[in-house]
Specification:
This protein is α/β, with parallel strands linked by helices and 625 residues long. It folds into 4 domains: 122 residues, no CATH class; 85 residues, 2-Layer Sandwich (GMP Synthetase, Chain A, domain 3); 105 residues, Beta-Lactamase; 285 residues, P-loop containing nucleotide triphosphate hydrolases (Rossmann fold). 41% of the residues lie in helices and 19% in strands. It has a 6-stranded antiparallel sheet, with helices on one face. A 6-stranded mixed sheet has the order 11-12-13-10-14-17, with helices on both faces. Strands 1-2-3 form a 3-stranded mixed sheet. Helix 19 packs antiparallel against helix 22. The chain is globular. It starts with 5 loop residues before the first helix and ends with a helix. The N terminus is likely disordered. Zinc ion binds next to loops.
Length: 625
Amino acid sequence: MPATDKSSRQTSIATALLKEGIINEKQLERAIKVQALLEEPRQLTEVIVDLGYAKRTAITDAIAKHGSTMRLGEILLEQGIISSDALETALKVQQEQGLKLGEALIQIGAINERQLLQNIASQARLPYIEPTFSMIETSLLRGVSPEFLAKHDFVPFSKSEDGVITIVVSNLHSDTVKRAADELYQGKAVLALGPEECIKATIEDIRSYRQSGGKEVSSQEQRDTAVNLVEHILSQAVEEGASDIHIEPMTHAVRVRYRIDGVLVYKTDLPSDLLSKLISRLKILAECDIAEHQRHQGGRILFHMGDRSIDMRLSIYVSIHGQSAVLRVLNKDMALVTLDELGMTPSMLQRYRDDVLDPPTGVVLITGPTGSGKTTTLYSSIDYCNDVQTKIITAEDPAEFTIEGIVQCSINDKIGRSFALTLREIVRQDPDIIVLGEIRDKTTADVAIQAALTGHKVYSTFHTEDTIGGLLRLIDMDIETFLISSTVISVLAQRLLRRICLKCAAPYVPNAREVEQVGLSMAEVREYEYKKGRGCTNCSYTGYRGRVAVYELLVLNELVKEAILMKKTAHEIRQISMDTTGLVSMREDGIAKVVKGVTTFEEILSHTPRTFHTRPLRQILTLSQ
Ligand SMILES: [Zn+2]
């Protein structure tokens, strides 16, 4: 089968590099020899870069220039979007079923339609646009019938200051579309690539708009393109639950991405000629200086959407390709989550209630990196303890959420309400429970331990990788080990993993590499069924929607306390905790959630710390009931 022959796949990239004079025959020969000697397989172009024969940018440019004569598979492989295993499988499927390679790749789940189009567009140095009716420049619809657009399968999108019109097509190789658009717009049309379903839906919307109003678009209804687009981008981001919006100039387009559930999602491009208008519009909303193009700027936008107003922070950064904007969406309607909703397994939840929250004294630490959801857990724990017989007082920096019935204090150094002064005063308030937003240094740790020694319950958060790391950090802060072992009753570590999208979840067989990496064997994994999201509109084609926490709950027993007193190593303390306290690692908690169809091995690998020992799958499932 010549199509699956690796050397023939390499030749067309090599030919392009030779043609462009980027490398010579001798260098190519040598690179191929070196590649054959490598133990870890590497792309030929990577080897060429490593050997110093060419720069990565030169190779990318050559691929862009010769992209049309190269096979799609090798371009995707070269970009690291698909693996060579996936390509082999797709080539087989392609031959067996007579499909196009792109279709075969989509069918085996190696890539989705959006990723494929985004890649084709970027190779052709064209914007990738997902058009909607609310985004398009309405003046371009004057004198154009939806039937004409449907026949030629394109939508006009925007018009630059010098009259160049961007139209969105789904097929770059149709000459009739370009001819029709050129005729319509006097030869001033340029192409952008977009998904066929978006183009069809937009044409449908144009048709129903015409039918409802029955008229051409009047000049009054025309709004400025930038006003429309900015409103579209901000409201779509809010609807999709994005935490940040990125608008970045690239060489061939303006790229729009949203951060959703902690991951950047590529939404659409916009024509480069709209950049300055978009940035100006954002600056007007944030009351920044429109005339200033050389300095970084920031501001605040109160964005109105229906009856909600959403607070956003704008940051403009001056990059070499122009001004780049990022908006942080501040979510004020964060809901208080109850203990039951935290996502702990029933047995863990019961231990957390009985052995951690109910005891009247001791220090409880919730640990994890920024964005691991520990504040949510802290607030639901406090909410559980909140009743008329309990005085709860907090020192937070700042208070992120208000709970009725507890005394919350936001630290403010500027007006002299410093952390140190607040801590001195807090114990004089006759509290039962003290909540310290974060243990940041030895002083805070001392206050927590002293308060626990005098019969208080103390909750706080910490920045450590896992539960054992939390204990060791206290030792590193020069806190006496006997004080740690006599006050700390529990450490809870956590991470947030993305949830599989319910709308597009489909059966899936995990691959051997990821199974091995989480510490399981394929034989035990095969006994259960698994799911993965294929990508749909509900999840912005990521296969995930929302997040779920995974936990590692350490409740200290006598053996662990003894291990701390003896300053044993992290490895030893972990082993004792696993053997005697029923400690389940975050990775193991994640594995149990994968078997339940909540998340994937991929998510475990990218968000949880490596553990040296994973228990057998059956045992994990028994412990996680
Ligand atoms: Zn989905």
